[in-house]
Amino acid sequence: EAEGEPLILSATARKDGAQMGGGALSVKPLIDEKTGEWRPSVIVALGGLAALIFTGSLEADRLRGRLHSYGGIKTAVTHSPEDLVKRPGLKKETLEDMKMVIRALA
User: Fold this and answer.
1) Cα–Cα distance between 93 and 73 in angstroms, integer?
2) Do the strands 42-46 and 73-78 form a parallel or antiparallel pair, or are they unpaired?
3) Which of 11, 12, 16, 62 has a CA 20 to 30 Å removed from the CA of 26?
4) For residue 16, what is the enclosing H or E element?
């Protein structure tokens, strides 16, 4: 059976920080269930909190630029949309990450 479509997840913290750390990880059982159901071909984690869910690390800057694995699914980490608005210079890195995802899909 063919793999599914890419899954893209962006997770952001609320101003009160309620989703930081353990809060973000509280959705992990649901993510595990849905990735098993959807069987995405590639996962793209946008930003640190999404990276935390899929890699166990908040350090999106350190994780980006190479593929990781989440339950046997190729997983890429790149900058969050919020970071791209705040720091437009990150768009080039994000473009390179998306090119890597496209190559992974081939």
Assistant:
1) 22
2) parallel
3) 62
4) none
Helix (H) or strand (E) holding 106: none
Q: Is the Cβ–Cβ distance between 60 and 48 less than 8 Å?
A: yes
pTM above 0.90, yes or no: no
Q: How far is it, in rounded angstroms, from Cα 40 to Cα 38?
A: 6
The total number of residues written for the chain in this structure = 106
- Who's near 28: CB < 8 A, 6+ residues apart? 53
User: For residue 45, which amino acid is it?
Assistant: A
Residue-wise over 79-88: b if at least 16 C-beta within 10 A, else e? bbeebbeeee
Distance CA 106, CA 97 (A): 15
- Residue 104 CA to residue 90 CA, distance in Å, equals 21
